[in-house]
Specification:
It is built from 8 helices and 10 strands. With about 325 residues, the protein is mostly helical.
């Protein structure tokens, strides 16, 4: 509950001098609290008068009060700092609060009168300080100086159609006298209508291009499907053709193998017969060689006569 209240009532822990969270807080006799450095700076300016006052209630003190850190208040402020959401601080691209000291908070509004940007806390302080006075606030912007006339230091709330530039009321009265002028807000409304028309044309063009894109995508997909079908058909034709060729190849190879086998079988039969005939002839040749050395003329003549009779029809060419 205490932490929740700290989060809700953090404005109660702002220093009235620097308008930031209390740093090294001190509480003076009247009960008001300040940053030690802030109240010290205020009283340093009052040293010559020898009268010291509270910047808020104006209660005076004849002697300069001693300052001691309010440890309880310091602890509360420290807890408050840890409970502040991280997104309240300005990051890259954010507009910083011009009043914050130390780490800058993210500004939410800019004042065209004060030419300052404020975070939520300091905006509340600003509205409280200028209560009843009309200050022109706008969304936080880092272009405050560009919104002010550099010559007259007035807000650029008019527009010169003749010169096509933003001007202030004094520019309209002097430098742009007799020019065709209009309020910046009215010119914005006019330009807003033109912008809407331009946007409408762009949106029509975008829609047309998206339709063209979709049509082109469908054409591409159709072409892909058609191509895939053709590829599959060709694959089927060539697959069947390859199978037919493989069958013919196998049949031809089988036929050649059969012819080879028959020819080899015939040749092997002839080889066996020739080898047998050679063996027989060698054996007879050996017998004749032995007969040629015999001393028995009768045996020699009888055997040779018989040999001539047995081989009278021998024709080597016919035998082969």
């Amino acid at each position: 509950m205490a932490e929740s209240r700290i989060s809700v009532d953090r404005n109660e822990f702002m220093c009235p001098v620097c308008l930031d969270l209390l740093k090294d807080p001190v509480t003076i006799q009247c009960g008001h609290s300040y940053c030690k450095s802030c109240i010290t700076g205020c009283w340093d300016q009052e040293d010559q008068m020898r009268v010291y006052s509270c910047p808020q209630c104006r209660q005076t003190f004849s002697t300069r009060p001693a300052l001691a850190t309010n440890t309880m208040l310091a602890e509360v402020v420290d807890k408050l700092k840890t409970k502040l959401p991280a997104d309240i601080y300005a990051g890259a691209g954010d507009v910083e609060c011009d009043v914050c000291t130390g780490r800058k908070c993210k500004a939410i509004k800019s004042c065209l009168m004060c030419l300052n940007s404020y975070c939520q806390t300091h905006l509340e302080q600003h509205e409280s300080f200028f209560k009843g006075k009309k200050h022109n606030l706008t969304d936080a912007t880092g272009r405050l100086q560009e919104m002010i006339c550099q010559k007259h230091e007035k807000h650029l709330d008019m527009y010169c159609i003749t010169d096509q530039q933003c001007i202030c009321v004094l520019c309209m009265k002097y430098e742009h006298k007799n020019h065709n002028t209009i309020s910046a807000a009215a010119q914005r409304t006019k330009k807003q209508k033109q912008l809407k028309e331009t946007q409408r044309r762009f949106q029509q063009r975008i829609q047309q291009r998206e339709e063209d894109l979709q049509q082109l995508r469908e054409t591409v997909e159709s072409h892909k499907r058609s191509t895939q079908t053709e590829v599959e058909d060709i694959e089927k034709v060539f697959t069947e053709l390859i199978r037919s060729i493989e069958r013919s190849r196998s049949e031809l190879i089988g036929l050649i193998r059969d012819q080879e086998k028959a020819a080899v079988n015939r040749a092997e039969g002839q080889l066996e017969r020739l080898e047998q005939e050679i063996d027989d002839l060698k054996m007879r040749d050996a017998e004749l060689e032995q007969l040629s050395h015999t001393q028995d003329h009768i045996q020699f003549l009888q055997v040779t006569d018989q040999e001539e009779h047995d081989h009278s029809g021998l024709d080597p060419a016919v035998t082969r």
